[in-house]
Amino acid sequence: MNLDKFDIAILETLQKDARISLQELGKQVGLTSTPCWTRVRRMEEAGVIEGYSVRVNPEKIGLPETVILHVTLDNHSDEALFEFGQALEAIPEVLEAFLVSGDYDYYIRVAVEGTRGYERFLRERLYKIPGIRHSKSSFVLRRLKQSLVPLRRSSASGNE
């Protein structure tokens, strides 16, 4: 889908505050409500806007630790990868999971209560999934950056 400057401005604004009123959104991007709503609906229907959500601070709800797991599977068949992905989707502590190239098959971001919570997560959830050959864990000491999707690319990339 081709996005013009108004579409990009709408997306940037919604990424910062998805609860903004349509009137305020239009005002911020330089459109009246009707064309602004039409653009939002078009981007929703095209799948550019996948949905709206709330960012929850995991620490405030008793999940202060984030762990990055590196996992290698025994089998790399389509079926094995699909089943492992399905199993990860069913685990609430798993925040994100990526099938990756390189030394490991998956990078998985997990939220847990602490080291005891993580040990329980491994024992009761992750290691019950068949086919894991190897895993390595790294506790996140501090999050340095959490970004929105970059919509305006720098002129250094030549895409502006």
Short précis:
This protein has 160 residues and is α+β, with helices and mostly antiparallel strands.
Q: What does this molecule look like?
A:
This protein is an alpha+beta fold. It starts with a helix and ends in a 21-residue tail after the last strand. Strands 2-3-1-4 form a four-stranded antiparallel β-sheet. It has two domains: 5-45, Arc Repressor Mutant, subunit A (Orthogonal Bundle), CATH 1.10.10; 58-139, Lrp/AsnC effector binding domain/regulation of amino acid metabolism (RAM) domain (Alpha-Beta Plaits), CATH 3.30.70.920. The protein has helices at 5-16, 22-29, 33-45, 78-89, 115-124, and strands at 65-73, 94-99, 106-112, 132-139.
* CATH architecture assignment name of the largest domain: 2-Layer Sandwich
Characterize the biggest β-sheet.
Answer: 4 strands, antiparallel
Strands side by side in the biggest sheet = 2-3-1-4
* Count of helix runs: 5
CATH topology of the largest domain: Alpha-Beta Plaits
The overall strand count is: 4
Tag the structure with descriptive keywords.
160 residues, Arc Repressor Mutant, subunit A, disordered C terminus, single chain, Alpha-Beta Plaits, 2 domains, 19% strand, four-stranded antiparallel beta sheet, alpha+beta
